[in-house]
Amino acid sequence: MSNLELPVLGQDGTAVECCSPMVREPLGQEAAVDLARMFKALSDPVRLRLLSLIASHEGGEACVCDLTGPFDVSQPTISHHLKVLREAGLVGSERRGTWVYYWVLPAALARLAALLEAPATAGGAG
Amino acid sequence: MSNLELPVLGQDGTAVECCSPMVREPLGQEAAVDLARMFKALSDPVRLRLLSLIASHEGGEACVCDLTGPFDVSQPTISHHLKVLREAGLVGSERRGTWVYYWVLPAALARLAALLEAPATAGGAG
DNA sequence: TTGCTGTATCGATGGATGTCGATACAGTCG
DNA sequence: CGACTGTATCGACATCCATCGATACAGCAA
Questions:
Q1: pLDDT tens digits for range B62-109
Q2: Strand C nucleotides within 7 Å of a protein CB
Q3: Residues whose CB falls within 8 Å of the CB of residue A104, separated by 6 or more in sequence, listed in order
Q4: B123 FRET partner, CA 20 to 30 A, in A39, B5, B87, B116?
């Protein structure tokens, strides 16, 4: 249950509408729906902190037991948020004995980062 | 009403928790709330397409009249989504005579992109 | 002024979402 | 086996959100 079927594509450079900066060409509806799902997973403060906790944890992965402490919400809520992140294709998970480990899928983050990349030359916020 | 008070900071390299990749260090709660608000603005397919339409429009800005056509939703809904994007600090807007123009604020997109940037060396989604 | 067009706001509504307590499931230890 | 811990699922609930039609506001043209 680690890798969902991500419609990710040309790692080798084949330009797809999903990965080029959105300042270059308008997003298609399909791509927009797919990307919006991933951004929605990032649209909650708890999930954002969970993701950064996992990503910055040593070894690049974290046990759920490391993730429930830093938050004021209940354990089922943490489990729910982890499920959202997993179903969005942002993290993978695996059970090892008693504990369940989560790790970030860098390709997914990179896909979103590439989309947001901009020349930053036009009149920006500052 | 173009520039909201973005707590953006060191463009010159001063490391702030908002801008360093989340794989480096855990996000603080305040930063997470702030960033989640921006990601939430990107979590809707219509808004994502609106943003890319604006960004990829010639001159880097687009009239609302250019934005209502490509969608199946009503004009008030488009107006609502544009407001969400504006209040999230992702776009600026200005009225010029009859028409209202919107443009992307690249610094905001760059801030999010920097956060998502990862070494992309660990076992990724593929 | 009146009329027309472009855009924003209002109020309502159905559906999605975050949260919880209770509980079920998975694995380890006696 | 039973007891215990770690994690996920269930069901409920309050709130938020995308959407709409109706309407108000802003600017231009007669």
A1: 999 999 999 999 999 999 999 999 999 999 999 999 999 999 999 999
A2: 5-11, 17-23, 26-28
A3: A51, A54, A55, A60, A90, A91, B23, B118, B122
A4: A39
- Residue B47 tokens, joined: 């808004």
What are the tokens at A34?
């797919």
Q: How far is the first Cα of chain A from the last one, in angstroms, to the nearest whole number?
A: 44
CB contact under 8 A, B43 and A44: no
CA B64 to C1' D22, whole Å: 21
Residues forming beta bridges with residue B95, ordered by sequence position: B100
Which of B103, B112, B125 is facing A105, going by the closest CB pair? B125
User: pLDDT tens across B12-34, in order?
Assistant: 333 344 556 776 677 888 889 99
Backbone angles phi, psi at A66, to 5 degrees: -80, -15
Residue A19 CB neighbours (<10 A):
20
Answer for the pair A78, A67: CB distance below 8 angstroms, yes or no. Answer: yes
The list of chain A residues with pLDDT below 70 reads 1-20, 23, 118-126
Q: What is the pTM of this model?
A: 0.82
Q: Residue A61: closest CA among chain B residues belongs to which residue?
A: B122
**Tokens standing for A126?**
């500052």
Say whether A64 sits in a helix, a strand or coil.
helix
